[in-house]
Amino acid sequence: MGSGRLGQWLYILLVGVLILLKAEGFNVGITYVVNAVAKGAVCLDGSPPAYHIDKGFGAGINNWLVHIEGGGWCNNVTTCLARKNTRLGSSKKMAKEIAFSGIFSNKKAFNPDFYNWNRLKVRYCDGASFTGDVEAVNRATNLHFRGARVFVAIIEDLLAKGMKNAKNAILSGCSAGALTSILHCDKFRGLLPMSTKVKCLSDAGYFINAKDVSGAQHIEAFYNDVVTTHGSAKNLPTSCTSRIRPGLCFFPQNMARQVRTPLFLVNAAYDSWQIKNILAPGVADPHGLWHNCKLDITKCSSSQLKTMQEYRLEFLSAIARLGKSSPRGLFINSCYAHCQTETQETWLRDDSPTLGGIKIAKAVGDWYYDRSPFQKIDCPYPKFSGSTVLQDGQETTVDNDLELFTASMDWTLVHKIWEKWASNSVGSSDQPLKAALLINYDPTGPSRLLSTIAEQEGIKANPMELSQFVDFVNRNKLQSESFFIGPNQYIVTSIHENWFCARSMNTSKPAGEGAIVMQTAAFLVVGLYDGSIGSASRAMGAVDQFVWQLSRKNL
Ligand SMILES: *[C@@H]1O[C@H](CO)[C@@H](O)[C@H](O)[C@H]1NC(C)=O
Ligand SMILES: *[C@@H]1O[C@H](CO)[C@@H](O)[C@H](O)[C@H]1NC(C)=O
Fold this sequence. Notes:
- It comes from Actinidia rufa.
- By secondary structure, the protein is an alpha/beta fold.
- The protein has 16 helices and 21 strands.
- The strands form four sheets. Strands 4-1-2-5-3-6-7-8-9-12 form a ten-stranded mixed β-sheet, sandwiched between helices. Strands 16-15-21-20-19-18-17 form a seven-stranded antiparallel β-sheet, sandwiched between helices.
- The protein is elongated and about 80 Å long.
- It starts with a helix and ends with a helix.
- About 50% of the residues are buried.
- The protein binds 2-acetamido-2-deoxy-beta-D-glucopyranose (2 copies).
- One 2-acetamido-2-deoxy-beta-D-glucopyranose binds near residues 76 and 78.
- One 2-acetamido-2-deoxy-beta-D-glucopyranose binds next to loops.
């Protein structure tokens, strides 16, 4: 101890908090595209479409990022009526201002390649990824299925506002908006001047045609309904609709290979929306067996995790159908996430996800500006060293990045150290600790996306409650706030170099109950003990011994 590590740690936390405040984003007002109404290019309820724009400046004045908002789909009159009078169906219901951060940030430090571009978020309001076009409007429902017209009307409006002089342009989007960016990528290219350098970016838009847990083709039937209801077929790429049923052309795996404009896919292989709505939608899980697992990956049973691993393989084989041509970019990580470019946390911050040491902002920037190609797929969760996947029939060694877990070699070592230490230090009344927890907390990794219990002994901790504890540590208000471990609430009694002590506020034990929390490079170690000052020093010694063994390995 005594290395000044807690000081360093608190400093890092403090800087983190400051960066967070500064990066929280700024608000950008809404622009209604009123002239679109005359073209019949309207939202579900007939209101004008809308976007938010932050103008480019300096060298970025002729560069345009057109990013489409996400928000699922409506597949029939019932679900479209339910959407009609919400922000996803009517510009009358949209917030007048939204926050810009991540890929929308106007600060070089947070968005090095696009900060000075014209940055736009197009509001999603048709319920079919801007593909629909039905002339007739039913009087009774007043539903307008005109998404494809909205897309063109918005691009025309932007061209008139200066995009006709664009030097660089990107069509991007998140989720259903990312699907727009794939489906309309070549159309966007065609609407811009030949001299403009155009590329497309899909963030969480690679929805795959997989069976659900009941074995039904839920998403395939759903997309088929979307395409039928909105009259989308004529606006899907003909290279696909000439070969197969239009409903199937809503799946990127069936049409993205034919996209001629360079396309970059950012996607989690365990995309949380896909797990919840393609793999285990409510209709396929009538007994709610997947309910907790869908909310929190650490609550999945081993058979559910296995099903998710199989889903990942299916996802990767759908990705492989894209081919490996070099204008394609791939950032396929193993987070349980959905949309990673719009938030600073995942786009570019110290602890953002990486593949091969590269964060999403850099991978996309390098690819757009042709500084270097980027095609990386992370290994499965939890990590196994040297995993391989099949891509286009060739075996490719995938990246072995530090992401949710430390590399498996280290992991095996940590596990061994823990087992030996816990059997000597935790459990029975003559041992110094009654319980202990090891929490994956790598301040340089995106562990905050998912606080992971690496090991536990003498306690069955709830990951949700523990994430409150990790938040408490992150907030760095050790002296003024309390935290929970299990049912007990604790207040901090002393703060030291790389550790702190706390006492339970609700113990019934006469000598009290205490906690010792120590930080290592990649973990938080929590030791819980019963008793007095004497037992506190024994407990401290025990935790210290474990931490010392980890720190010798820089863990
Ligand atoms: C509309 O779609 C929803 C969701 O798939 C479904 O539950 C409902 O039965 C459908 N309604 C009609 C009228 O087809
Ligand atoms: C623990 O004590 C705190 C503060 O006195 C109280 O708010 C909380 O409800 C108590 N919890 C239990 C489980 O008794």
